[in-house]
What does this fold into?
Amino acid sequence: MDFPERFSNLPAYAFPRLRALLDVHEPGGEVVHMTIGEPKHAFPAWVTDVIARNAAGFNSYPANDGTPDLLGAIADWVQLRFNASVDPATQVMALNGTREGLYNAAMALCPEQKNGQTPIVLSPNPFYQVYMVAAISVAAEPVFVSATAASGFLPDYASLPPETLNRVTIAYICSPSNPQGAVATRAYWQELIALAEQYDFRIFADECYSEIYRNDAPVGALQVAQEMGADPERVVIFHSLSKRSNLPGLRSGFVAGGPDSIARMRQLRAYSGAPLPGPLQAAAAQVWADEAHVDENRALYRAKYALADEIFSGVQGYLPPEAGFFLWLPVDDGEQAALKLWTQTGARVLPGAYLAQGEPGDNPGNHYIRAAMVAPITELERGLITLRNCLYT
Ligand SMILES: Cc1ncc(COP(=O)(O)O)c(C=O)c1O
It folds into this structure.
């Protein structure tokens, strides 16, 4: 059976592509996994107790948009972390992980037309892959804007021509960015928000790496929008417990933004949403309210940044990540480098081109590999040393 026409050009997802590239070969040594951004540090031990205490909730359908407890904990966290105020009753919705929210927000908020034309959804390039499929699903035209060394590894949306900007309905932006670990400054957000006000589009700010950083806590999009007195509907933020609290399997995230945006998302969710089970919502509420484990987690990543800086010191083009847990490492050819690493050493990384769009010769990920620093530090150290020795000596 054929895929619907709109998905006919959808490339295979990055990980099946990687398996097809590598798994036809034997690993050249003990396997070190650095491909998937799946946190491996421990989550707080008390999480399982909270789930067990609330287990009776598995007997009921869960609150679709989030329990008052969870929404309140999230609003408190947004206030504490970003000094931004959101009304838990109208401006926050719980998500079953951020990914579905990034997808469903486009369903709820992308109009069929903009100024009488097909809408455009902007995405950084490289990018988290759901942005593209969301744009295609709402029959918008995805436009990929390179986020390379020349643009500080964030997209320069202001450089697009007015005919393009006039059609934009949504601009996805990821800060701290996956894969490069770049952080949008207050000035970057101010410029982007001003552009969105000028051309009347929404910013979908994917901030799910915001709690994993080296020095200063990244500034948030909603925070800057409120400082500027921007239209409250202008910015929609997405956050997650997956990275902050090492709970990717809990599937807890949230979206926050203007009351109209959230009302539309809630309405759609009433029909088609897959809410987080009640006992997991109870656990998530407590996890958002606790910062001690987040500090501990950050300390573990800081040790990993220091390790990477030491191992890659002197490597030309090495980009010390400001935040997040990926290394975006320059190589001649990402696919060849990943294959060489696998077959000669057993270290497994992702070719950068699999995370980006573009013609074979013109893909901003071509000359990079992405390595996730999620493994326990001794295993990571072995992997990074192997990588350096194989590719940079
Ligand atoms: C940039 C980015 N956004 C969103 C997500 C999704 O996170 P969640 O686990 O909350 O669905 C990820 C996970 O890898 C990510 O890297």
